[in-house]
Amino acid sequence: MNPFFEIDEKIEEYSKNAMQKIKGVFEDIDDITQYNQLKVQKAFIDNSISESHFVPSTGYGYGDRGRETLDKVWAQVFGAEDALVRHNFTCGTHTLATALFGVLRPNDKMLCVTGTPYDTIHNVIGISGEGMGSLKDFGVSYDEIPLKDGKPDLQAITDAVDESITMVYIQRSRGYELRASLTVEEIGEIVNAVKQKNDKTIVMVDNCYGEFTQKIEPTQVGADLIAGSLIKNAGGGIARTGGYIAGRSDLVEKCAYRLTTPGLGKEVGCTLDMNRELFMGLFFAPHIVGEALKSAVYISALFSDLGYDVTPKYDEKRGDIVQCLGLENEESLVAFCQGIQSGSPIDSFVLPEPWDMPGYDSKVVMAAGAFTLGSSIELSADAPIREPFYAWIQGGLNFHSAKICAMLAAQSMLKKGLLKNGK
């Protein structure tokens, strides 16, 4: 029994059983964490990182050694030719949009091969929204290939790719879908299928939530461009904002021209006092992602035993840090999120309620008591209020904190008479 939180004995017992069940999975996660930590550490050493790289720049930011070397470290870690790592990417969607607008031109065609992408990118592409300056507004056409049994349809992808396809877009994580996240190996299969049909087609991967969950990244299996947010995996819970783009040097350069201005690209952009935390965030990222993976595995095992549908299962191979939990009705979904919030180090007193959130087509309930607003490498749980009432859970700066939050979520449901096997 813990001396700090009131947890029903039944939930305590389920927790102990879950911990026994997942020991072997935790060992596998530790192996991945160690490999990725050594990979990051070697990149820091190879690039002779010192205190001088943390010195802030102002104004134009010309000759900022920290900014320039951070890009080199990032490229080495991700097995890429070049990288663009900046604090002034406002979010993952902004980073992805910069990459898309950076490399696509009027009359180009973008093909998403993982079904309809995440809600917030719809307005960027032009799937929804009018007159916002979307890719569609600028003459870039779009098509998508539905998933087949929850997986990319390689045959349909092969049939669809021809000389007209400028970019194949892959979303690695599941978004608000119940399909499995993609492993790097599966992304490699898509890359091979695309390149065999048209080796000039750019393959771009939305790598959000996937960084450091495996020993390799999509750029190491042929992806031309990857992008993600620094308040998810790659910022290690330390970066307060920002994003990254990595891949082929010519494509990264085009993205830099989009972020700043043609002709200036990566040469400008002061870092103010952000370099230290971007370096430190990357250094911590492999360990923090390991903690988030352990948190997801534990939640999967605990709530599966409590009688709920979970995806992925606790012992399935993972390509991201996201855990889905089928809570069957709005009341249970909200009670779960409220329980997660009650254990958060920040804003534990807040009671999450469904609300209209920008970029989403239905109300969303969100538990997110984080040191950095919206940081989803810190434990959060959110869901659109629509059938089949699944919660999407991600993050956990340390497993022990996330574990008690999960138990408090079960306790919140029990208190309201909603917990299945706790009755």
Structure description:
The model has no long low-confidence stretch (mean pLDDT 96). The protein is an alpha/beta fold and 423 residues long. The relative contact order is 0.15. The chain has helices spanning 9-21, 23-46, 65-77, 92-103, 122-125, 154-160, 184-197, 249-259, 275-305, 330-342, 399-415; strands at residues 82-86, 109-112, 141-144, 167-171, 202-206, 225-229, 243-247, 309-311, 323-326, 364-367, 380-384, 390-394. The protein is globular and about 65 Å long. Strand 11 (380-384) and strand 12 (390-394) form a beta hairpin. The strands form two sheets. Strands 1-7-6-5-4-2-3 form a seven-stranded mixed β-sheet, sandwiched between helices. A five-stranded antiparallel β-sheet has the order 8-9-12-11-10, covered by helices on one side. The protein has eleven helices and twelve strands. The two termini are 20 Å apart.
Short structural description:
With 423 residues, this protein is α/β, with parallel strands linked by helices.
Distance between the termini: 20 Å
What structural class do the secondary elements suggest? alpha/beta
In N-to-C order, the SSE pattern is HHHEHEHEHEHEEEHHEEHEEEH
Strand content: 5-15%
Number of helices: 11
Secondary structure topology:
Elements: H1 9-21, H2 23-46, H3 65-77, E1 82-86, H4 92-103, E2 109-112, H5 122-125, E3 141-144, H6 154-160, E4 167-171, H7 184-197, E5 202-206, E6 225-229, E7 243-247, H8 249-259, H9 275-305, E8 309-311, E9 323-326, H10 330-342, E10 364-367, E11 380-384, E12 390-394, H11 399-415
Parallel strand pairs: 2-3, 2-4, 4-5, 5-6
Antiparallel strand pairs: 1-7, 6-7, 8-9, 9-12, 10-11, 11-12
Helix pairs in contact: 1-9, 2-3, 2-9, 3-9, 4-8, 9-11, 10-11
